[in-house]
Amino acid sequence: MDESDGQLLAATASGDAEAFGRFYRRHEQRILGYAIAHCANASDVADVVGETFLAALRSAPRFTDDGGDAVPWLFGIARRVLAHHQRSFTRRQRLIRHLQALPVLNPDEAAAVEAAVDASRLAPALAAALQALRPKDRDLIQLVSGDGLSPAQAGAVLGMNPNTARIRLSRARARMRDALADATPPPGDPSPASPHPEVPHAQP
After folding, report:
1. What is the pTM of this model?
2. What is the DSSP letter of 1?
3. Which of 48, 51, 66, 138 could form a disulfide with 133 if both were Cys (CB 3.0 to 4.6 A apart)?
4. Burial class (CB in 10 A: 0-12, 13-18, 19+), 180
5. What is the signed CA dihedral for 128, 157, 200, 133, rounded to 10 degrees?
6. What is the pLDDT along the chain (204 residues), one digit of tens a residue?
7. Nearest of 128, 139, 141, 132 to residue 173 by alpha carbon
8. Are 71 and 27 contacting, i.e. CB atoms less than 8 angstroms apart?
9. C-alpha torsion angle, residues 173, 203, 150, 111 (rounded to 10)
């Protein structure tokens, strides 16, 4: 007398791999046909069939034997597996559409983005380097590089003659370049800053 589905699954739950093999062969064609009817390609069919029986193997201890066969139970598992695949497919398609909608940067735009990333990476080190300067040198840098004054104009604002302003500005920039050259990029940063970053300067 053939074993019932309930008996095969009970034996499976007890560790009988051969019992599950018989259960698989008994229902393989029906689940295969179901997957073929609902999947778009052979790869998805194989995935749905394999995952359905894997889930059945894991769920065998929870099968309730009411004297009938396990077909409704097995198809319920197959439906859930198929629904999961369809949700995953929808998410993949949404992601693909999103990626296709992203703008493509031309070389100038890409260079601008890279420059902005570099500037953002150097910002903490730049702030620390500025803070380490003497107040007048810091003001001199700000007036020239930030506010667009010439060294002579900035010197006049700060009570320096033009020659002194140029010398102090040159030395302040050199100290900042040295400080930035020693700056270490954040851990794990795949694109460390240039070892000799440029400190912005205006024409005298």
Report:
1. 0.47
2. -
3. 138
4. buried
5. -20
6. 588 999 999 999 999 999 999 999 999 999 999 999 999 899 999 999 999 999 999 999 999 888 788 999 999 999 999 999 989 878 877 777 766 665 666 676 666 667 666 666 667 877 787 788 888 888 888 888 878 888 888 888 788 898 898 999 888 888 878 877 776 555 555 444 444 444 555 444
7. 141
8. yes
9. -70
* Residue bearing tokens 């995952």: 51
> What dihedral angle (degrees, nearest 10) is formed by the CA atoms of 161, 163, 166, 170?
-130
Q: Which residues contact 133 (CB under 8 A, 6 or more apart)?
A: 141, 172, 175, 176
DSSP 143: I
3-state secondary structure of 31: helix
Residues in the chain: 204
- 192: its two tokens: 């460390």
Q: Are 165 and 201 in contact (CB under 8 A)?
A: no
Burial class (CB in 10 A: 0-12, 13-18, 19+), 26: middle
